[in-house]
Amino acid sequence: QVGMKMVKGPWFFATMGGGWSFKALDDDRAEATWRYTFSIRPGWLSFVGDPIGRWLLGRDIHRRIAGYAAGCADPVVLEAARATLRHGDPVPMEQVTDEDPVAADTARNRAPGRGGPERG
Hints:
- By secondary structure, the protein is α+β, with helices and mostly antiparallel strands.
- It contains 3 helices and 3 strands; from the N terminus they run E-E-E-H-H-H.
- It has helices at about 45-75, 75-85, 100-110; strands at about 1-5, 15-25, 30-40.
- The chain has a 3-stranded antiparallel β-sheet.
- Strand 2 (about 15-25) and strand 3 form a beta hairpin.
- Helix 2 (about 75-85) packs across helix 3.
- The longest helix is centred in the middle third of the chain and has 28 residues, at about 45-75.
- Mean pLDDT is about 75; it is low at about 100-120.
């Protein structure tokens, strides 16, 4: 589970927070849930601001879910996650050996300036 609370942000949010939770369904599948909560400032604008906020945050949630689903289907992301689970997080470059090519590739791709995407 991941939780967040806005400490500093746009003036129109009096409060803003959210959470992501992940529930294993079986060995190969999980259910991901994103939830946000907010209140608008000033309060008398909430009749207009709340529906707009729900629409904007709903759009953001759908984009995040689509990105999460794409990452879960990406073989490179899946192998990086498996390597992290095998070796702990993170896999420092100096500890990578040729005996585990997945960990080596994962660490190389995370290293800044190595030409691969930075994944964390």
